[in-house]
Amino acid sequence: MEHRITIGGVVFFAVVGVGPAAFADPSPEGAERVAPGAIAGDTAAPAAPRQPIAGDTAAPAAPRQPVAGDTAASAAPRQPSPAELASARHLFSLGLAAEDQGRWAEALEIYERISKIVVSPPLLYHLGVCHEALGHVVEALNAFELATSGATARKELALARESRSRIEKLRARTSQIVLRLPGDATGVRVEIDGAPIHPALVGAAILVSPGARRIAVSAENYAERFEATVQAETGAVVELQAELGRKRALAALRPIAPARPAPPRAPAPGPSVPPVAVLGAAAALGAGAVVTGAMAYDVRHTFLKKNANPAPGSLAERQALRDRGQALAVTSTALTGAALVAGGFAAYLFWTSPSPPAAPEHAAGPRPLPAPRAPGLTALSPWVGADGAGVAVQGAL
């Protein structure tokens, strides 16, 4: 443990900007130091491809991902503030003191708190040291591999060399579990001590810490769930055949009933007034407006002619002509307005009335012709009286 402070501690404090003289002697191995402040955005580089470890959810060829419970967490997504870096430096000194006194669980908890602020190869190294002291072989391997990768990328050769040395020693203390499943199993779910294992790792040697390990395997197309507890001895390889029982019977396809045609929709209620009747009324009103307008023009012409050369005693006659012309003009104007309103209403009724359903193309035979309507007689009779003038409509539209 003489390298714990001289390598990991020296580099950590050099990185966060605090001189190491207050905590350790000068490094006998000449570990290279990183410029102060470089820790602010530091993240550990991904480890090189390695042998699968229990708790991994990635395929063997994929870059390592943190396992469940792994303390080698990635750095915080944001850059830590100066106050947070000062807190990390203080916590690191507390962690070193806990290590010196053999309080490994306390030191591990402190380092995990630091990893939520900033992550560096020295911190990962000390995480691995604590896990190793507590017997967490797999977690220690994870931390040392990340420390090795990060230290190599940052040219911290002494720290990388020390981490690799510990990895070689730890691998001899691990156990391996090899799971065998039916080749046609689909939807496989594997757990070791409750931690999920990627199905691609099935059949490969998975590193686990020595001791009793709980294995659980299930597959979608098999009826039973396999569970077993195995004793993984140090350096041993445990091969396990997962018996999943009989295959599930494929669910019988239900016969699909033919789609029933939708019931015909009830015809939309038509307008209470036939559009044709309204159109006929509009035409009649328009004709009445034309007739009364012509009569008003004729009366006005007569009035102007007699008024230009008035005969003696013709005042009453001229007054009557003027009143009659005014009445006809007002009537013609009113009929014109009514015809326009009726025409607009008829257009609205034609627009909103449902169109007759088209006959299906496969219908045989000619379409029946509509029954002829009996012709009706329509008569328009303009009238003029003492009280006004108008148009009388008689007959059928």
From TrEMBL:
<feature type="transmembrane region" description="Helical">
    <location>
        <begin position="327"/>
        <end position="351"/>
    </location>
</feature>
<keyword id="KW-0472">Membrane</keyword>
<keyword id="KW-0812">Transmembrane</keyword>
<feature type="transmembrane region" description="Helical">
    <location>
        <begin position="276"/>
        <end position="297"/>
    </location>
</feature>
<dbReference type="InterPro" id="IPR011990">
    <property type="entry name" value="TPR-like_helical_dom_sf"/>
</dbReference>
<feature type="region of interest" description="Disordered">
    <location>
        <begin position="42"/>
        <end position="80"/>
    </location>
</feature>
<keyword id="KW-1133">Transmembrane helix</keyword>
<protein>
    <recommendedName>
        <fullName>PEGA domain-containing protein</fullName>
    </recommendedName>
</protein>
